[in-house]
């Protein structure tokens, strides 16, 4: 286990270096740049632009800029935002709780509904419920997240007035758990329902593979109650594909949160990323991309390690 863990960490480190190199190059080679907002000011001359470019280090060759940024990163300095000169880690720490709250609530909703629908679809194979669940999953995968969010706001906020149209809490009011949950309804519903489809399909496929195995039929023949057969015998052995899905859904969650936070004006990392992208705030963008890449690497590693917990036959060399 120790050798396997060390090997995976080294592989993850190599992947992280590759991600930073590609992201850094793409961001700096994209049209525009941090100096674009200064060109809109009529009082800003060429000398002023050159001075700002030198202060930000943008006049250096791209490899030199990357080497300087990577060296600072190794020493714990993630840089400062070009917009407000605040440390990138401080900006991320301020917005991380909102994104974590949204992602966890959406993931719990997706797992709860998706696993239940998948189990029922496998137990009632080719029934009307199974066909409806399959159709609903295809529709869910086909609907763009931003359109779903806009329709949610139009119907349930503007027309019916049931949910707030945006933000994390009501301005001018003291903290209230009910108020926070009320503001969570819209974005969690949008992001959670989009993720229900893969959870339901993976659960259904995994359950169908184990429901007709000999050990399941033996348990039924011994008179084991049906709920116990489904949960303890079938579902546990169908969890391995779900663990893989949990690992790979981290980038999907962040990508969906990026759109959802923008539509619902949710003050999280996704909205912060979109705003920073408009300003070409390179240090902030790189900080968020690194943070996301680390989550993906650790998520996949955790999913692999959990395989041995679910299935004792799995051993790591």
UniProtKB/TrEMBL annotation:
Q: Which UniProt keywords apply?
A: Cell membrane, Membrane, Transmembrane, Transmembrane helix, Transport
Q: Which residues form the ABC transmembrane type-1 domain?
A: 96-307
| PANTHER family for the chain | DIPEPTIDE TRANSPORT SYSTEM PERMEASE PROTEIN DPPB-RELATED
Q: Which GO terms describe its cellular component?
A: plasma membrane
> One of this protein's GO BP terms?
transmembrane transport
Q: Indicate the transmembrane segments per the record.
A: 12-30, 102-123, 135-163, 183-200, 238-264, 284-310
How does the record say this protein sits in the membrane?
Multi-pass membrane protein
Q: Which PROSITE patterns match?
A: ABC_TM1 (PS50928)
Keyword Cell membrane listed? The answer is yes
CDD domains, alphabetically?
A: TM_PBP2 (cd06261)
Q: Where in the cell is it found?
A: Cell membrane
Family to which the UniProt record says this protein belongs: Belongs to the binding-protein-dependent transport system permease family.
Report the InterPro entries cross-referenced here: BPD_transp_1_N (IPR045621), MetI-like (IPR000515), MetI-like_sf (IPR035906)
Q: What is this protein called?
A: ABC transporter permease
